[in-house]
Design brief:
Elements (H helix, E strand, L loop, with lengths): L6 H6 L39
């Protein structure tokens, strides 16, 4: 083995370039629709209160 025994270990732990998240997330954050909200389906959820 011409290289040291830890050459492959060092190569495996080298930092990768950061991922490009620009294509994953929308340019502007959008609120979830009411049907997608788990709170709306909760039995104890009160949308408006007179308290």
């Amino acid at each position: 083995m011409p290289e040291g025994p830890y050459v492959y270990v060092v190569a495996a732990f080298q930092a990768l370039p950061p991922p490009d998240y620009d294509d994953v997330f929308p340019a502007e954050e959008q609120p979830l629709p009411a049907a997608a909200s788990p709170t709306a389906e909760s039995l104890g959820y009160i949308p408006e209160s007179d308290l």
